[in-house]
Recover the amino acids of this structure.
């Protein structure tokens, strides 16, 4: 059965589909010695190589799922040449992995890393309504109007954010649960209301809670993987 090249590379655990598309655009992928286009399909027996390295079912690895407590200052990128403080060099994991989504350099907290390219969009796509929970501190006191406005939606990036749960935790601290992932969403929401974020920590993604020290990682438990798969069962699949 023919499979698109980006899906093939994600299924064998080489990289995510998005990263595969970048490799194809950069001319680093060949199929039977020829440079494919995005959307090219491969069949059983085809010789797929990335930068001269043979990729195939024989290279397929066991799926890896890590929960990492990202420190402030670390960048969620796999491009080790562009950014010296990148997440891959920081973790130094012994197998190829990549982050699911991102946290800003100035933010900290929970982020997933994996070699399972098929799971990425299922978790990230907003239509799937998967929760991400954050604890945020701002530069001045918050009031009921702030909480209500944040909950009901704020205009940023030419759109109105989706309704979300917001709870005041202290004079300048609140909890927020999002199902969106707009660029610097929480910071932009606060800025639109005249506030500046001083600290932002992600403490939960779906059923996985932050329970490890800053700078450390752990593997998902079997129970967490089972529950995660149940939550993802009805999610929109990644693009073919």
């Amino acid at each position: 059965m023919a499979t698109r090249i980006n899906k093939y590379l994600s299924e064998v655990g080489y990289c995510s589909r998005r990263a595969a598309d970048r490799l194809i655009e950069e001319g680093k992928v060949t199929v039977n010695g020829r440079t494919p286009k995005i959307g090219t399909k491969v069949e059983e027996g085809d010789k797929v190589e990335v930068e001269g390295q043979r990729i195939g079912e024989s290279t397929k690895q066991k799926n890896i799922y890590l929960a990492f407590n990202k420190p402030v200052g670390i960048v969620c990128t796999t491009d080790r040449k562009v950014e010296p403080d990148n997440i891959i060099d920081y973790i130094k994991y012994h197998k190829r992995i990549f982050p699911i989504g991102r946290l800003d350099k100035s933010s900290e907290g929970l982020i997933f890393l994996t070699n399972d390219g098929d799971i990425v969009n299922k978790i990230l796509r907003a239509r799937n309504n998967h929760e991400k929970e954050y604890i945020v501190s701002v530069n001045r006191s918050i009031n009921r109007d702030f909480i209500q406005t944040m909950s009901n939606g704020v205009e940023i990036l030419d759109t109105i954010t989706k309704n979300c749960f917001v709870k005041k935790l202290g004079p300048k601290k609140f909890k927020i649960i999002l199902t969106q992932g707009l660029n610097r969403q929480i910071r932009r929401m606060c800025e639109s209301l005249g506030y500046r974020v001083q600290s932002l920590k992600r403490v939960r993604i779906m059923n996985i809670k932050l329970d490890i020290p800053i700078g450390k990682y752990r593997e998902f438990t079997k129970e967490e993987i089972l529950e995660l798969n149940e939550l993802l069962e009805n999610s929109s699949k990644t693009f073919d």
The domain at 131-205 is CATH 3.30.70.1560 (Alpha-Beta Plaits). Residues 222-232 form the longest helix (11 residues). The chain has a mean pLDDT of 89.
